[in-house]
Amino acid sequence: MLLAILAAFAQPMPDQLPFRPPSIPLVAHDPYFSIWMPNEVWTSADTEHWTHAPHQIRVVATIDGQEFRLLGNPGSKTPALPQTGTSVTPTQVGATFSGMGVKVELIFLSASVATDLDMMSRPLSYVVCRSAATDGKPHQVGFTVSVNGLLAASRTDQQVASKIEALGKASVISFGTVNQPVLATKGDRTQIDWGYCYLGAQGGSVWASAEATAPAGSFTARLEFGPRKVGKAPVEQVSFLAYDDGRSIQYFGQDLKGYWRRNGTDMRSLLLGAADALPAIRRACEAFDKELTADFMAIGGPDYSLLASLAYRQCIAGSKLVADPNGQPLWFPKENSSNGCLATADVIYPMSPQALLFGPALAKALVEPILAYGGSSRWKFPFAPHDLGTYPLANGQVYGGGEQSEENQMPVEESANMLILVTAIAHMEGNAEYAGRHWPALSRWAHYLVEKGFNPENQLCTDDFLGHQAQNVNLSAKAILGIRAYAELCRMQGKTEDALAYKTTAENYAARWIRESADGGHSRLTFDKPGTWSQKYNLVWDTILGFGTFPQSVKEAEMTFYRSKLNPYGLPIDSRGTGAKLDWNIWIATLTGNPSDWESVMQGVYRYAGETPNRIGLGDWYDTATGHLNFFEARPVMGAAMIPFLYRPALWQKWAHKNPLNPAGWAPIPPAPVVVPVMVAADQEPVTWQYTTDLPAPDWFKPAYNDRKWKSGRSGFGMDGTPGARVSTVWDTPDIWIRRVVDLPDPVPDNLRLWLHHDDDVDVYLNGVLALKREGWTTGYEVFAISKAALKSLKPGQNSIAIHCHQNQGGQYIDCGLVQVSKPKP
Fold first, then answer.
1. For residue 462, what pLDDT is reported?
2. Distances from the Cα of 692 to the Cαs of 383, 710, 798, in angstroms?
3. Is the CB of residue 477 less than 8 Å from the CB of residue 550?
4. Alpha carbon of residue 563 to chain centroid
5. Euclidean distance between CA atoms 26 and 37, whole angstroms
6. Is 599 helix (H, G, I), strand (E, B) or coil?
7. Is 464 helix (H, G, I), strand (E, B) or coil?
8. Is the peptide bond before 716 cis (omega within 30 degrees of 0)?
9. What is the pLDDT of residue 374?
10. Torsion, CA 766, CA 769, CA 772, CA 774, rounded to 10
11. How far, in Å, CA of 211 to CA of 208, rounded?
C-alpha cells in the first residue's frame, strides 16, 4: 500500500513562481531567529539557520490515519504529500499540497510589517496548517509540528532544559541551554545559545522527545493537533514558534532588549495574547502584503515582486530592532557571512532603501548608532566610523584599526555614506532637524570629504573584498555627492553661505570628475588607469535627492557602456573580472530611469537568483559568467532592492507616511570606562609565559601542575597578519596551552576583568577555576568579565592563569592580561 502511495505521488511540482528562489526565509526575525528552506520542494531538504546549522522545523500531516511529510526530513520513510505550489510575500511564505482527496496549505506568517515597529519587532511566527477536502468526501486531518534543540543552542553537546506549561488556553513547550551564557558569544557564523524557544498552540498537545534535560542534538520539541473532520470548508490549526532572547544587543556596556519589550511586555504576555491577536495581525499582514506587492508588480512585474519580497524578508532577518535606555528604536544590521560586524556603515548604505521607504522611524533607527558613536568622545578620527563592534556586542569599532589607528579604515566611504543618508532622511521629512542633532560630526565629515574625497588616497571602500585602491573614481563620485548632500542640509537649516560654498565645491569637483575620469565615452575605474571601467552605482543619489550635480548625459553614457559588458547573470562590478554585487546591480539598473536599461540589467539578476546552484539566502557577491557564489550570503544589504521606490516621490511619500512614529530623545552613549592594567599584556609590554602545543595532562590548568618541561615564550602567541596581533612567539599549530603566575596586591583590586585578544576559541582558568569560555575571535584586545567563582579564587600574592586557545580558520593569536575597570569620574 505504501509503495503504491509513493508511486502515485512521484510527480514534479508545478512551477508557480517566476523563478526558483535559491532559499526561502520561513522564519525571518533577526540574525539568530532566521530559519530557511534551501529547496523549492519543502520535503526535499531540512530547514536550516542562515549559517546552515541544522535548525530543523518539521511538519507532518495525518490524513485518514496515513502520515505525510509537508516540511523537512527528506530521508524519512514517511511519504511526502505532493507539493503543488509556493508563495512568497513580505510577511508570509507558504506551500500548498494535494493528495488523498485533501488540499493542505502550510503558511509561515511573521508580523514583520515595517510600518509598525512594535509588530515588526515581535519574535513570533505563526505556523498555519489549513486543510480542505477536494473530493467531496469528509476526511480526518491532523498535524504534527516539531523543532530540534539546536534552535536554542550553538553546539549539539550543549545541555538544554525544557518546560511544558499552560499559558491561558495554549499548551506550550519551551527550551533553552542550561548554562544560559547571555551575550557571551559574538562572531559571524554564530547561533544563539541563550534565551528560550517556544512552541505552542491552543487545541494542541506538546511534549519533548528526551528527558527534561538533554544534549541539544538529541532534543526535539513536538506539538500535535489531533485529527479533525475536514470537508469542503477549510479548517485551520495554528501554532506559534517564538524566541525570547531576553537581552539582545550590548550597546556600550548597556544590555538592550527587543523593541517590543520597551513598555514592559514580556514573552509570557506575548504568548498569552498570541491566539487572540492573530486575526488583527493577519489582517494587517495581508493588507500590507497586498499593497506592497501591487507596487512591486507595477515597478517590475512578477520577477521583481518575488525578488523584492525575498529581499525584504532577508533584510529583516539580518537585523535586530531594539530599544535604547530611553525606549527609542535602534536597528542593528549584522554583517552575515562577511565578518559579523554590526551597524556597519557600508552595510547600512546599501540596505537603506528599505529603511527609508518605510518612514523616518526605521531610517533614523538604522543610522543613529553610527552617528551617535561618530560624534562621541570615544571616536577620535575626523571621518565616520566603519562599525560598532561584532554582533551582538556594539561596544566600539573592531574593523581595521578600530579605535586605535587609521589602519584599514574606510574614511571617505563611511563619511559620504552618512552624509547622503542623513540628507535622504531630510529629503523624506522636508526638514533637517534630525541632521541638527548630529551637526558637529556631519560637519567634520563634510570638511574631510572636501579635503580628501575628490581623488581618494589608497584605501578601502565598501567593496573591500577587492582590496585597497587609490584614485577610485566611483568612491570620488560618492564623496562629491556627500559634499553636495551637506550643502543641502546647510540650505535646509538656513546656513546660506555654507550651502553655497559646499554646493559650488561639489559642482566644481563634478566637472573635474567628468574630465579627468573620461575614457572614450565612459568613466574609468581609477583616474590613473585608462582602459578600465567600473559601475558608478553611487550616482543614483544624484537623481533621487534632486541634485543634478552630474548631468543626465553622463549617466546615460555610463549605462550605454554597461550594456555592452553584460554577462548572462548581470553586470560585473568593474573591469577586473566577472564578479558582481547583487545590490549594486539593482541600483545600477535604475541609474537612467529608462525601463529598457532596467530590464537589460535585471534579466541577469533574475536569472542568477533562479539558477545559482548555491542554495542560500540571496548571495550578493557572485560570478556573472557562471551564476556561482563568490562569497556573502543572507546579508541585510538586500534592502537595496527597494531603491526603485525612492525614484518615485509620491510612492515613497505614501509609504513613509504610513508610520506616524518619529522618534527623538535617544539616550547618549555613556563615556568609556577607565581601564587600568594590573597584569600587562603584549599590547603594552611582552611578558614571559610557559607554553606547549602538545596535548598536556588533564590537570594542566591547575595551580599545582608542573609546567617546567613546557617551553618559555614572550607574549603574544600567534601569526603575523592576524588583526590586532602583537606577535613575539610564533604559534602555527591547531592548539596552544599557556600558563604563568601573576602577583596580586593586598587587597586584591576590585572590578578585575580579563584583557584578552583571542583568535579563535579560548578557555581561561584562574587558580584552576574556569574564568571564561569563549568561541570565535576578536580583532584586538577587549575587556571580558571573569566568572564569579574565578573572581572568588583570587588572593593576594601568587595566582595562576592558564589558557587554552584553539585555531579554527584564518588568523590565530592569544594573549591575556588583567585590568581594573571603573566608571569615569563626572
1. 63
2. 43, 6, 22
3. yes
4. 32
5. 7
6. helix
7. helix
8. yes
9. 98
10. 120
11. 7
| Res 8: pLDDT | 32
Please check whether residue 535 is in contact with residue 591, taking contact to mean a CB–CB distance below 8 angstroms: no
Backbone φ and ψ of 479, nearest 5°: -60, -45
Cell numbers describing residue 222: 513536538
Closest CA to 395 of 675, 663, 791: 675
pLDDT of residue 465: 60
Q: What 3-state DSSP class applies to 188? A: coil
Q: Mark residue 783 as left, alpha or beta (left: phi above 0; alpha: psi -120 to 50; beta: remaining).
A: beta
Do the Cβ atoms of 386 and 409 come closer than 8 Å?
A: yes
Exposure of 690 in the CB half-sphere (CA atoms within 13 A): 16
**Per-residue model confidence (pLDDT) at position 209:** 85
Q: Which residues does 621 contact at the CB level (< 8 Å), separation at least 6?
A: 465, 579, 580, 581, 582, 629, 630, 631, 632
- Whether the CB-CB separation of 609 and 307 falls below 8 Å is answered with yes
What's the confidence (pLDDT) of residue 407?
87
Give the per-residue pLDDT at 269.
96
Cell of 317: 532577518
Helix runs in 149-258, H state only: none
CATH 2.60.120.260 fits 674-822, yes or no: yes
pLDDT digits (tens, 9 = 90+) for 640-679: 999 999 999 999 999 999 999 999 999 999 988 899 999 9
3-state helix, strand, coil split of the chain in percent (to 5) is: 30, 30, 40
Residues in the chain with pLDDT values less than 70: 1-15, 460-466
For residue 376, give every residue at least 6 positions away whose Cβ sits within 8 Å of its Cβ, in sequence order, or none.
668, 669
Residue-level pLDDT at 14: 36
Q: Which among 755, 754, 790, 750 has a CA at the least distance from the CA of 770?
A: 790
- Distance (Å) of CA 462 to CA 341, 468, 475, 786: 13, 10, 9, 36
Cis, peptide link before residue 574, omega less than 30° from 0: no
> Which CATH architecture best describes the domain 2-289?
Distorted Sandwich (2.70)
Q: Where are the domains of the chain?
A: 2-289, 324-656, 674-822
Q: How many CA atoms lie less than 13 Å away from 421 in the CB half-sphere?
A: 33
Residue 646 phi/psi, 5° resolution? -70, -15
- Residues written for the chain: 826
Separation in Å, CA 659 to CA 90, 116, 117, 377, 656: 17, 6, 9, 33, 7
Give the amino acid at 812: Q
Rg (CA), the chain: 28
571-588 pLDDT tens trace = 999 999 999 999 999 999
Written as nine digits, the cell of 778 is 576578536
Nearest to 634 by CA among 329, 71, 303, 188: 188
Q: Identify the three-state secondary structure at position 595.
A: helix
Looking up cell 504610513 gives 658
Task: Judge contact between 573 and 534, C-beta under 8 A.
Answer: yes
- Give the residues across from 144 on adjacent strands: 60, 224
- What CATH class is the domain 324-656? mainly alpha
